[in-house]
Amino acid sequence: MSVLSQIGCSVVVCYMCLSMGLMYAWPSCTLKLFSSNNTTLNRPMTETELALFGSLSSIGALIGTPLSGFLLDAFGRKYSCILFSLPQVISWSIVTVSTNVELILAAMFLSGIGGCALLIVPVYVSEICQESIRGMMTSGAMIFYGIGLLLSYLLGGCLEYNMMNYVCLSMAVVGVLALWPLWETPIHLLKKGMEKDAAKAIAFYRRLKETSKEVNQEINNMKRALNPELDDLTPEEEKLKPEMKTVKKMSKWRFIKKSRSSRRALLVALTLYLLAVFQGLVVVQVYAEPLFAEALPNISPTVSSVLLAVITVVAGCIAAYLIDVVGRRPVMIYASLLAGICCIALGSQIHVQWGPHWVTGVCMYLFCITYTFGAGTVPYVLGAEVFLPEIKSLASMVCSQTAWASNFIILFIFNPLVLAIGLGPVFYFFAVFCFSSAVFCFFCLPETMGLPVDVIQTLFAPKKKIQSVC
């Protein structure tokens, strides 16, 4: 019952990513319509406006992500989720009532502010789930994002333009309302000194009595994780010697500056996010229909896009299972290697047409599967579990900010890059980042499966230093 309760609550939180996916895949369904003379808007979009249409959401996320990093601690996880679900509601409201090109672009920008869901949701879910299912549930953020893409492709292919907008608006409203019955995360309440409320939150998510032994034990575990009060020693030394007396608590930036393990964890997470974005699946998702129209001219782009989203969701579910059974590190290494091979095969097929058209589709779908297994799941799980509670919101914000900046760059330059060198060679470019991810993870990524955060930090601490204080 306890696990089922955590899964149910995680699904409600992850729905926020589904709402985000609906809007983020919307350009794929409407790009051709908005550029044609038969557009539903007041005028056809120009080439520059079409490029902005697909990438403005990333600019919005660059603004929303730093704000969410602050509000996660100021407002809490629950109310941050509610607050940043509202941009999707407002964006769909604008799209529903307006035909003005500028307002449609403004709606895409505004929806991007809610893109910090990929920061907030993993943090929220990781703090309400026990270690045995933490990785699986945290990866739900990307699974539900994939479901949002799938629904967007399906609705775009099956419904009339205005009807789709009404349906998506209704779904966004449902997402906001569903968050209200949830409790704040126990560890955030404990950070605020609200121990009784933290115990109630644990009892709510674990379906236990507030005074039970299990609740008291979890409270004590959280207190240990929240006790890195530092003196002249590094935080990892303080963790290994809890008997040392505590001093005035440090600011987040000073904590990162002083803690070598936190700096290394941040560097590893940042690199993973950066490499993951430049592996290129975000381009395939946002520009799915035009990509499939060029790569598979004999098959309906809508059918190809829907199949892509279905494969992404299924692969995400399998990845969620694998990372809690096989481990984060091996999954990321082997998936990145396979994704690189798929990129080379896909790029060469598009470039020189060494096989029939169906080979292009197979390669694209295999790339989607291998990417989702590794770069589409692992960085988001790691970003939610490798940082101590004191700096989790700040460090996660920096990682998400890096990812969104990279998203904007790759989406904005994609069309000009295709015009300059062709679609096939672009996938060679993606392959380089796939292989780089595998090499980086082999040498720099420790295994974190099933470990509490204080133990994870010791994996990033300098080995000699650990030996000297043991």
TrEMBL record:
<feature type="transmembrane region" description="Helical">
    <location>
        <begin position="265"/>
        <end position="287"/>
    </location>
</feature>
<dbReference type="InterPro" id="IPR050549">
    <property type="entry name" value="MFS_Trehalose_Transporter"/>
</dbReference>
<feature type="transmembrane region" description="Helical">
    <location>
        <begin position="426"/>
        <end position="445"/>
    </location>
</feature>
<feature type="transmembrane region" description="Helical">
    <location>
        <begin position="299"/>
        <end position="324"/>
    </location>
</feature>
<feature type="transmembrane region" description="Helical">
    <location>
        <begin position="7"/>
        <end position="26"/>
    </location>
</feature>
<dbReference type="GO" id="GO:0005886">
    <property type="term" value="C:plasma membrane"/>
</dbReference>
<dbReference type="InterPro" id="IPR020846">
    <property type="entry name" value="MFS_dom"/>
</dbReference>
<feature type="transmembrane region" description="Helical">
    <location>
        <begin position="79"/>
        <end position="97"/>
    </location>
</feature>
<dbReference type="GO" id="GO:0022857">
    <property type="term" value="F:transmembrane transporter activity"/>
</dbReference>
<feature type="transmembrane region" description="Helical">
    <location>
        <begin position="163"/>
        <end position="183"/>
    </location>
</feature>
<protein>
    <submittedName>
        <fullName>Facilitated trehalose transporter Tret1-like</fullName>
    </submittedName>
</protein>
<feature type="transmembrane region" description="Helical">
    <location>
        <begin position="50"/>
        <end position="72"/>
    </location>
</feature>
<feature type="transmembrane region" description="Helical">
    <location>
        <begin position="358"/>
        <end position="382"/>
    </location>
</feature>
<keyword id="KW-0472">Membrane</keyword>
<dbReference type="InterPro" id="IPR005828">
    <property type="entry name" value="MFS_sugar_transport-like"/>
</dbReference>
<feature type="transmembrane region" description="Helical">
    <location>
        <begin position="103"/>
        <end position="125"/>
    </location>
</feature>
<keyword id="KW-1003">Cell membrane</keyword>
<keyword id="KW-0762">Sugar transport</keyword>
<feature type="transmembrane region" description="Helical">
    <location>
        <begin position="137"/>
        <end position="157"/>
    </location>
</feature>
<keyword id="KW-0812">Transmembrane</keyword>
<dbReference type="InterPro" id="IPR036259">
    <property type="entry name" value="MFS_trans_sf"/>
</dbReference>
<keyword id="KW-0813">Transport</keyword>
<feature type="domain" description="Major facilitator superfamily (MFS) profile">
    <location>
        <begin position="1"/>
        <end position="449"/>
    </location>
</feature>
<dbReference type="InterPro" id="IPR005829">
    <property type="entry name" value="Sugar_transporter_CS"/>
</dbReference>
<dbReference type="Pfam" id="PF00083">
    <property type="entry name" value="Sugar_tr"/>
</dbReference>
<feature type="transmembrane region" description="Helical">
    <location>
        <begin position="331"/>
        <end position="352"/>
    </location>
</feature>
<keyword id="KW-1133">Transmembrane helix</keyword>
